[in-house]
C-alpha cells in the first residue's frame, strides 16, 4: 500500500488508517521491542494485537529469541494481556529443532545456547549437550580430542548467558569437522533496551564462533530464508500480510524479502534518529509505515518506564575512556555487556591487540584467539576496533622508527594473513614456517589460486634452517 514510503501512521487520517487496516489479513509480529521489553509490556501493544484479532486477522508471533520454548512464550504473552496460543509462536528455538528433524538428523547437538533450544530439541527426540555453565579451568588448553563427544554432528549457537572461553573452544573444535553442521538461531547484535547500557545479542556469539572456526553458520531466524520457507507452508498471501518489527535489518528486511507490508515501531532497536538517517540516505530496507510504538495505533499515550533488574548506567565507571580487547580466558557475558556499553559513547576509544582467529595447535582441537573476542565486541557495540598488532599499520609505523633497512630485513612467521602480510606491507623479505597456523595444504591452495600475500621462502619448521646452512660459515 505505502511501498517503503516510511509513512508515519500517527499523522494519517481516519480514512488512511482504515485503508491500511483493510489491506492485510495476516499479522506477523516480532516480540522484544515491539510487544514488550524484558518482562515489561509496552503500553497499548496487547490492545493493538487483540484488536487485530477482533478484526479477523490471523496472528503469528515471529521472534528471534531462542531462550524459551513456544509454550513459555505463549504463557508470557497471555500474562501480559495478549491472546496467544502455542501454535501461533514461531521462535528460533523451535525452528532449529524443526530444521534438524526435517533433514533426518540423528546425532547429538553441541548447544552453545539456552535450555529453550534444548527443550525444543528434546521434544523432537534429538539429544544435546552443552547447556549451562562451563567455567574456565587453569588447564583449559589441555583439552584433548578424547574430551570431545564423537556423537556430536551439529553445533547450534543461540543466546547463552553462560558463554565462556571453553564453550567457544568446544564449538570450534567440533566444527573442525566439515561434516558437523553449524546452525545459528539469529545474528541480532543486541537486545532492544533504552539508555546507554548495551545487552549483546546472539549475533555476538555467532560472530565469535564463525571467527575461530573459520565456518559460516546457517542462520534460521529473521531475515533469512528458512523462516520464509516455513511460513509458506501456511499459504499466506504476501501482498495481504503485515510484518511488524523494531529493527530494519531483521524485521523489515524479512518483510521486504517475503513481499509483505511492513510496519516499523520505534520502541526497540531502531531509533527515530537512525531511521531518519536511513531515509535520508535512501538505504534499504525501509518500512512502509512507522509508529513510535504499536499502542499508538489505538491512540493510547503512555511513556515506557520499564523497571530493569539488570545492569544500570550507574554501574559503569564514568572515568573509562577506552576499551582494550585482548586475549581473555575469563570472557563472559557481563564483560561483553560492559565493553559494548562503554563503547556506546563515541568518545570512548576501542583498541584491539590483534585479530588472530585462533592459536597454533595441531590436531582437531581449536583454541580460539583474540580475534574471536574482538569480532564479538565489534558486533554488539557496532564499532570497529583500532588494531595495534600485526599486520596493521601501527606495527609498521613503530618499526619505521627503528631505522630498519626493509630490503635487508627478514620477517619470519607461521601465518600468511598476519606475519607474511606485515612483511609484504613493510617491504621485508618473508619466511613462512609450516609449524603453526598455516598448513602445507593451506599454502598450496593459496599458491594455486595466487592469493596474496605469499611468502618468499618456506620451511616446514624454523629449526630446519640449520640443516641447510653450513655450521662453519653460516652460508648455504
UniProtKB/TrEMBL annotation:
* Top-level division of the source organism's lineage: Eukaryota
Going by the UniProt record, its keywords in alphabetical order are: Hydrolase
One GO CC annotation: cytoplasm
| Membrane spanning stretches | none
- Pfam families for this protein: Hydrolase_6, Hydrolase_like
Write out the GO MF terms. Answer: phosphatase activity
Q: What is this protein called?
A: Phosphoglycolate phosphatase
**Organism from which the protein derives:** Arctia plantaginis (Wood tiger moth)
